[in-house]
Amino acid sequence: MDDLDWTLLTLLDRERSISAIAQELFITQPALTYRVKKMESYFQARLFTRTKKGFLPTPVGELAIEYAKSMKKELKKVQEDIFSLEGKVKGKIYIGSSSAVAQYLLPDLLSKFNDLYPDIELNVVTGFSSSLVPLLYDGKIHVAFLREEIEWNHYKQLLSTEGIFLVSRSPIELEKLPSLSRLDYTTNPSLRGLLDGWWAQNFRVPPKVTMNVDTADTCKEMVRAGLGYTFLTELCLRSEQELCCVPLLNSAGVPLSRQTWLYGTEEAVNFIAVREFLAFISGVLG
């Protein structure tokens, strides 16, 4: 058994398809099938059954997959420990990020960091906090850029606080919002709750939502086309000069805001590559 075998087992747990994995690993299907048979010989048991849905693990196969995952994790930790002991700024950093941060902040940040540390491999996964926080707790990502504060006992830093705005193509009066077309987009439950709370404080009738789209950027372009108004965070409005952007205020006259936090696992902070990354981000945004 070697690293390729462990990788193959973990991929089979995800893909269930030899052809898809062969394309991903740039290895022929017969070669991968042969490796599966060699692993079954190693464990002296059948690991997978072939079905119309692909390769499905047997009970023994499930155990082998868990073994492979643990071996991959241990190998990664040993490599990172060696780099840290030798003072080499290299290795892999697994980053989780909210979609907005990944779109508006990370490209420039990661490009500059890559210029400084070309031997560090950056792996990024995006999504809502609900999908990223479990990865952080499980140690599957080293750091996470989240658009909300969570209970966390390890590395945690507030990177920015930004306002939330009513966005329209032309000026509109707040009291007229219930009668106007509102455009909504898929967003984090925390922001949705904040906007719903603001609406409930100001109006007794529900908004007239005429369109739901997948991203804030799509929503912004719909607003630009004159199809209605929406609510966007400051991060989505950088360099925006054409649209009317009015900050939302709570009942006390305080602007509503959204925060961006950076989190790191206790284990990852001991790795030199992650330490350098956290120091870099802190120096630029902190």
UniProtKB/TrEMBL annotation:
Pfam families tied to this protein: HTH_1, LysR_substrate
Every HTH lysR-type domain range: 1-58
Signal peptide: none
One GO molecular-function entry: DNA binding
Top-level taxonomic group: Bacteria
UniProt keyword terms in alphabetical order: DNA-binding, Transcription, Transcription regulation
InterPro entries recorded: LysR_HTH_N, LysR_subst-bd, WH-like_DNA-bd_sf, WH_DNA-bd_sf
Keyword Ribosomal protein set for record: no
PROSITE patterns, sorted: HTH_LYSR
Family stated for the protein in its record: Belongs to the LysR transcriptional regulatory family.
Protein name per its UniProtKB record: DNA-binding transcriptional LysR family regulator
